[in-house]
Amino acid sequence: MDIVRLPLAETEELSWQERALCAETDPESFFPEKGGSTREAKRICSTCEVRRECLEFALENDERFGIWGGLSERERRRLKRAAG
User: Fold this and answer.
1) Residue-wise pLDDT tens digits, 43-84
2) CB 79 within 8 A of CB 59
3) Is 70 in contact with 55 (CB distance < 8 Å)?
4) Overall average pLDDT of the 9-24 stretch
5) Secondary structure of the chain in the HEC alphabet?
6) What is the C-alpha separation between 44 and 51, in angstroms, rounded?
7) Global pTM value
8) Which end of the chain has fewer CB atoms at under 10 Å, N or C?
């Protein structure tokens, strides 16, 4: 059996996802239906050790849905506009 090794950058990218608190909770909290509450997801994000990495990933990959790094899609858009 051959062992496939990921490039270091991809390995690091995956490691933060494995440590994310959202990986241990119901994903529906992070992708609420339109008009649904984001309160629970944001509460979980607020105590997550990889919140910054998560937000950076969402911004770099133009994630358009869900709560990433404690911010909604609208909040991430606003942040990108302010930075650009």
Assistant:
1) 999 999 999 999 999 999 999 999 999 999 999 999 999 987
2) yes
3) yes
4) 78
5) CCCCCCCHHHHHHHHHHHHCHHHHCCHHHHCCCCCCCCHHHHHHHHCCCCHHHHHHHHHHCCCCCCCECCECHHHHHHHHHHHC
6) 10
7) 0.79
8) N
Q: Pick the closest to residue 67 from 36, 37, 31 (CA basis).
A: 31
- Report the distance separating Cα 31 and Cα 11, nearest Å: 25
**Which residues, other chains included, contact 55 with Cβ-Cβ below 8 Å and sequence gap of 6+?**
68, 69, 70, 71, 76
**Of 26, 40, 39, 28, which Cα lies nearest the Cα of 66?**
28
Alpha-carbon gap, residue 22 to 76, rounded angstroms: 18
